Amino acid sequence: MRRRIAIGDLTATGILTALALMIPLVFTFMRVTIPPFFTATLMSHVPSMLAMLMGPFAAVGVGLGSALGFTIFTGPVIGARALSHAVFGWVGNWAWQRGMPLWLVMVITLPFHALFEMGVVWMFSANVQNALITLVGTAAHHTVDAAVALAIVAALQRTGVRWFERTAH
Questions:
Q1: CB 84, CB 117: distance < 8 Å
Q2: Binning pLDDT at 50, 70 and 90, where does residue 8 land?
Q3: Region 75-85: what's the mean pLDDT?
Q4: Which of 19, 68, 100, 165 has the fewest other C-beta atoms within 10 Å?
């Protein structure tokens, strides 16, 4: 059975994708860099974290948009690392649709996110130190951005925004 995507969901997905594309360009002042391959642009995971609560289309689509933005503005290695946003977004949507609380969804997605990024750095550098820096850095960055996403969702829920309601599967 095909699931129809509502106009509001499609619009929200487009807005979150636009944010994911813009963050590596606009938020350069919030970027931490440890050469050669680790960067952490604060807020860069938030669009993917919000999208994973909307559905699998939004979760993967925004993650791919994020990867495109990072590839264009920071290069192919960081772009390849950002593909993890599509992966953890899909996993997060899966957990969310099974009724898990949002804080737990963020915890469950962390290892998928950090291990994926560590694997990318390992493939490009074959350097244990670079891979471990990426693992620890991504875990810390994911945690900070998850706290921001949790606060945004709580605020949006108080305003009556329905994008983050669980859908039947």
A1: yes
A2: confident
A3: 95
A4: 165
Q: Report whether 75 contacts 44 (CB < 8 A).
A: no
Closest CA to 47 of 169, 158, 153, 119: 153
Residue 77: CB atoms within 10 A of its CB come to 19
The answer to whether the beta carbons of residues 118 and 131 sit under 8 Å apart is: yes
pLDDT digits (tens, 9 = 90+) for 141-151: 999 999 999 99
The amino acid sitting at 125 is: S
* Burial (Cβ within 10 Å: 0-12, 13-18, ≥19) of residue 43: middle
27 phi and psi angles, rounded to 5 deg = -95, 30
| Pure H helices in 52-127 | 56-74, 76-82, 84-97, 102-125
pLDDT of residue 3: 64
